[in-house]
Specification:
The complex is a heterodimer of chains A (210) and B (337). In chain A, strands 1, 2, 3, 4, 5, 6, 7 and 12 form an eight-stranded mixed beta sheet that branches. In chain A, strands 8-11 form a two-stranded antiparallel ribbon. A two-stranded antiparallel sheet of chain A has the order 9-10. With 210 residues, chain A is of the alpha+beta class. Chain A has three helices and twelve strands. Chain A has helices at residues 2-27, 47-59, 93-97; strands at 30-32, 84-89, 102-104, 118-122, 125-130, 135-136, 146-152, 157-161, 167-172, 185-190, 192-196, 202-207. By secondary structure, chain B is mainly β. Chain B has helices at residues 36-40, 284-289, and strands at 7-14, 20-23, 30-35, 47-53, 62-66, 73-77, 84-88, 97-100, 102-103, 110-112, 124-128, 140-142, 144-147, 151-153, 168-172, 179-180, 184-189, 196-199, 209-214, 232-238, 249-252, 276-282, 300-301, 305-309, 323-330. In chain B, the strands form six sheets. Chain B has a six-stranded antiparallel beta sheet. In chain B, strand 17 and strand 18 (196-199) form a beta hairpin. The two termini of chain B are 22 Å apart. Classes of the chains: A alpha+beta (210), B mainly beta (337). The interface between A and B is large, with 35 and 37 residues.
Chain lengths: 210, 337
């Protein structure tokens, strides 16, 4: 029972993530990376593209979502700027490693400030990677998959809970199933709508792989 | 021994000669189709009943064809691609990669290709890997004027200066983003007191919705109307004819008469971010004034699961004016060894 509840909890949160992901892919404004060198459109991720998106969000008065991590007297570490949050696919990990100025999370001065899904940061953007992040299949000028990286500031989007609840865990004991009490049902329902609150504070930075 | 749990859905529709998709929120493990028109009418040779359940191949199923004299039903397998297809609109998989042989510089541009068998007017295609007309690469377009085995047109695209003289590729995109409203690419903008904006794919915006324009500067000429970049506007009308007489448009409360003319990038343009319309909210007062739904701008998840019935005399979707009943359900257990 505990195991099942844990699995359902995971399923619930992943479903929420996927719905939010697809909402963002449908409605967020987009920016095509052009600073990479793979010859496609959009190109692979580059420092100039990340800075371009950062500049646009700054100009739109989007607040940074994550605070500065101040420098500490530890070998191999460096301070991390306050940052916008970027949500991208795990396949971007190699490309991020190769971007000039990329700071891996293990170079952060304070482990307690690192997010579990975080890969690292480039200037004022910290990248969270997930295997279920958004991909637009065959959507580049050369027909390659396009990776949607949602760079967002504070309160750019929200999940609106409907009917005054977020999620319910439902358990029906076997007494309800049949005369021999053989089957139980366990499940969850949730009623919420992901929504962009201010379209100026989030950008879909589209890129391909290097 | 336990009580078998199952749920059923039933209903009726009148066929219009095209495929029918039945949305079944509770899922589907089997479906029975009864074509009332064929069953009751004189004549023979058409499918009167159809059946499908999990385990049968996609596009197939069982057909019961009405026979002559007694009207008895003869059972057989539905022909390939003429039967039932499970549908989950949240799964976004493009169609196969298909070759094209050129894109004209006409108005509208016409895509030359022999590979039209999977296309219908109104479909969305994504063009890429062309040797010319590079500005169309990676963009989606609604098509029309389909000439089987020869070509299709991109009716909402602006005329392009240089044709694509050679090879290229396209895919059919059999889905829209399932969250509504979604952003769209801009192909044309008029210079008018209330600008008419043409979009590359058929839109479903409604009057009263508020949108923001992204019109990035690409070259000295394109996109030209950069004064529009970043502006937000209320949609005051939809489907008004643009300069080319096409109706996939929104009319907005922005006076563009003094703006620079809108110009789609040329094939020689460097890589660019396309001009786009981004939905952002609702102008309730305008919506009320124009008699529109004030919740038209609400974010809505349109995804559904269900089953698609192919059209045809020997297919479950029937032919035009057939009255068709369906009964669909889920099973307590599905065991297809």
């Amino acid at each position: 029972m505990n195991e099942t509840a844990q699995l359902l909890g995971l399923s619930l949160r992943m479903t929420e993530d996927q719905l939010t992901r697809d909402m963002l892919a449908a409605t967020a404004s987009m920016y095509n990376c052009t600073g990479g060198n793979n010859g496609d459109l959009p190109t692979d991720l580059s420092l100039s593209d990340i800075d371009e998106v950062t500049s646009a969000l700054l100009t739109n008065d989007a607040w940074m979502l994550l605070d500065t991590i101040g420098g500490e007297d530890k070998f191999g570490t460096g301070p991390v700027r306050d940052a916008y949050l970027a949500l991208g696919h795990t396949k971007l990990s190699k490309d991020l490693n190769n971007i000039n100025g990329f700071i891996s999370k293990w170079n952060y001065p304070n482990d307690n400030r690192v997010l579990r899904s975080e890969w690292g940061s480039v200037n004022n953007v910290r990248f969270m990677l997930s295997s279920v992040a958004s991909i637009s299949p065959n959507a580049s000028a050369l027909g390659n998959d396009v990776y949607n990286v949602f760079v967002q500031g504070m309160e750019a989007l929200a999940c609106v809970e409907q009917d005054n609840y977020s999620a319910r865990f439902l358990y029906r004991p076997p007494v309800f199933s049949d005369p021999l009490f053989q089957n139980v049902t366990i499940g969850y329902v949730f009623a919420e709508v992901p929504r962009i609150l201010n379209d100026l504070w989030i950008t879909n930075m589209r890129c391909t792989l290097r | 021994m336990s009580v078998v749990f199952s749920g059923t859905n039933q209903g009726r529709f009148t066929a219009d000669g095209t495929f029918v998709t039945i949305q079944l929120r509770s899922g589907i493990d089997w479906v029975l189709i009864k074509n009332e028109t064929v069953s009751y009418a004189a004549g023979a040779g058409a499918g009167a009943e159809f059946y499908w359940q999990r385990g049968m191949a996609q596009g197939r199923g069982t057909i019961y064809t009405k026979t002559a004299v007694t009207g008895a039903l003869a059972v057989a397998q539905i022909a390939a691609n003429a039967g039932f297809y499970l549908v989950d609109s949240s799964v976004n998989l493009p169609g196969a990669s298909l070759a094209l042989t050129g894109i004209t510089a006409g108005n509208p541009p016409v895509v030359n290709t022999a590979n039209t068998s999977s296309l219908s007017n109104g479909d969305i295609v994504r063009i890429f890997s062309t040797v010319g007309a590079l500005q169309l690469g990676g963009l989606d377009f609604t098509i029309d004027t389909l000439t089987p085995g020869v070509s299709f047109a991109l009716p909402f695209m602006a005329q392009i200066a240089n044709a694509n003289p050679g090879a290229g590729t396209f895919r059919r995109i059999p889905y829209n983003p399932y969250f509504y409203p979604s952003s769209r690419y801009i192909t044309k903008v008029s210079q008018a007191t209330q600008a008419i904006v043409s979009l590359s794919v058929i839109h479903s915006y409604t009057v009263g919705q508020v949108v923001r324009f992204i019109v990035p500067p690409i070259t000295a000429a394109a996109y030209g109307m950069t004064e529009l970049n970043g502006l937000q506007a209320t949609i005051v009308a939809i489907r008004q004819a643009d300069a080319d007489g096409k109706f996939n448009t929104i009319t907005v409360d922005v006076d563009t008469t003094g703006f620079t003319a809108f110009a789609f990038p040329l094939t020689t343009a460097p890589g660019f971010t396309p001009a786009q319309v981004v939905p952002m909210g609702e102008n309730t007062a305008t919506a009320l004034n124009l008699g529109a739904n004030i919740l038209g701008g609400a974010t809505l998840n349109d995804a559904f699961i269900g089953i698609q019935l192919t059209a045809g005399a020997n297919s479950p979707g029937g032919v035009a004016n057939d009255v068709i009943y369906y009964l669909a359900g889920t099973s307590f257990d599905v065991d297809n060894e």
